[in-house]
Amino acid sequence: MHILAWMVLIILPQIIINRYWGNNNYIAWGFYFNASIYGIIFYINYLWLVPRFYLNNKRTYYLILAIAIIVILYFVFILINENIIHNPERDKAIAEAIKKLAEKKVIPRPPFRQLQVYYFALIAVIITGFSIGLRVIEQHSASEKKQKELEKEKLNSELAFLKNQVSPHFFFNTLNNIYALIEVNSNDAQEAVLKLSKLMRYLLYESEQGLTGLDNEINFMNHYIDLMKLRLSPKVDLQVDLPAVNTNKKVPPLLFIPFIENAFKHGISYREKSFIHILLKIEKNKIVFSCKNSLGKQSEEKPVENHSGIGLENVQKRLHLLFPEKHQLDIMQAKNEYSVYLEISINS
Q: Which residues are CB-neighbours of 55 under 8 A, at least 6 positions away?
């Protein structure tokens, strides 16, 4: 952007000067010298004064130094203009034009030097303000980018933490159930071990990617639910409706499992009838997930956020970052029921 601006500043005036004044070296060199002075003011502010003082809340130092630099460069401007690229014809023409305007009482007749001061100060102040604005905008953009990177890094850490939480007690219970199955039904025990290994493989490898295939995520949920069934009593009404389709849709890994884990954690009662209903639908550009579970008397007394576990906050943050204004998450707690409804709009 800076190179492009300087190219325009160098080429365009030369075209205009050649068109209206011919090959006038006085005008061309005068313009380029003035532009160089103003460029120095801009880059001193942009590269040094603004980041070093203005953005560090040292505004008084910034103001003093900015004024000092403008004053110093003004004297350099006058010295070089009058002694190196001095053009008597140009000065005479300007003086005559001002004299004629003054005679017509259009404007008062100011001294030529005073007019130069006003002109230089005005341009210098405009350029200084532009350099401040540009630097502030760039810092704001850099801060936003850094904030997003920090949020992404935090999210990745939380995802790793979530993987480690899915779930220690679940793995212990599953291993105990498999151990008990070995003597009763060795075939079921072998199948359970296979499902557990697939679950671990997904947690350790597949979910490392930013996005994973929705069919992989569905397979993971099925394996998880199958293993959880090992410890369910006949009193639990478990209804699972997960589509068995081959799709190229992508979703963040472990997006739905916190809700399912919470359902098994809080929706199962070994003394009375309970239920868990899990549903996932795939539409053209939308994924709909629903999970409902019963609540025992102890669960009814606790607010809904106490049932969410560490996974819910993680999911909410991920949805906010990955699907801004493209998702709907409703979590409701009735007297005897806890329900989650999640709708995500996706492009592929």
A: 135, 136, 139
Query: How many angstroms separate the first and last alpha carbons of the chain?
Result: 35
Q: Residue 26 — pLDDT band, cuts 50, 70, 90?
A: low
Residues in Cβ contact with 338 at an 8 Å cutoff, skipping those fewer than 6 apart: 262, 263, 266, 267, 292, 293, 294, 295, 299, 304, 307, 332
Range of weakest confidence among 239-253, 289-303, 325-339 = 289-303
Is 80 exceeded by the pLDDT of residue 70?
yes
pLDDT digits (tens, 9 = 90+) for 47-56: 899 988 988 8
Find the mean pLDDT for residues 102-107.
58
Contact 223, 199 (CB under 8 A): yes
Mean pLDDT of the chain: 78
Residues 6 or more apart from 235 whose CB is under 8 A from it?
A: 269, 270, 272, 273, 274
Nearest Cα residue to 44 out of 33, 54, 34: 54
Domains of the chain (ranges; CATH) run 2-151 (no CATH), 166-345 (3.30.565.10)
